[in-house]
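Hey, sorry to bother you again with one of my protein questions. There's a protein on my desk that I can't quite get my head around. No rush at all, and the record is pasted right below.
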Amino acid sequence: MTLNTILRFSRATTPEEIFTGQWQDRPTGLDAYKPYLDQRWQEGCTNARKLWEEIKEQGYPHSYAGVRAYVSRNLRSKPQPAGPRPPSARAVTRWLLTHPDALPDRDRIQLKAVLAYCPELTALAEHVRSFACMVTDLQGERLPEWIESARTAADLPSLSRFAQHLERDLDAVIAGLTQPWNSGVVEGHVNRIKMLKRQMFGRAGFEPLRKRVLLAT
């Protein structure tokens, strides 16, 4: 290490001043997409993977790591975009899986705005709610029609694959959506036994576990 390098390190006030060199000025495959990334960042898209997927559709040939590094090094230090942040995927999923009558007014308004912005999500919401009606109202006879509709949803490949999996054991699924009997009680006991087993793991043998399970029933 030369004296100039040591002096540069000692005088640096930011990490960027330390990591300077010719390698930083070399052209990369991401250069052509940086203006688009900067624009999307200002528009409110701050998810590095989402940005990578967008430029990948435009022809970006490299992996996610380059975009993640650029976002972390260049964009995170910029001021966050003004305006309300878009809802997370987890929040939208919860809204879709909640009965419309049980949604608070604020969540209902936000979901309506999201569905208006994304036609594919609107179609998905219709399929999800139709399937939920079959489950809650025991309308298993509607399942073949629902599967056919879901399989033809070209913009929803995950839903189409789910529908194909249902066809593998169609009679059993229809029976589960029609008959009032289910294995919910059995599954509940299985989960309880697994919880007891995890609590006693490494602390006691099988006999104390057996007694605890039997005494709790």
Remarks:
- The chain has a mean pLDDT of 82.
- The chain has three domains: 26-75, 89-176, 189-216.
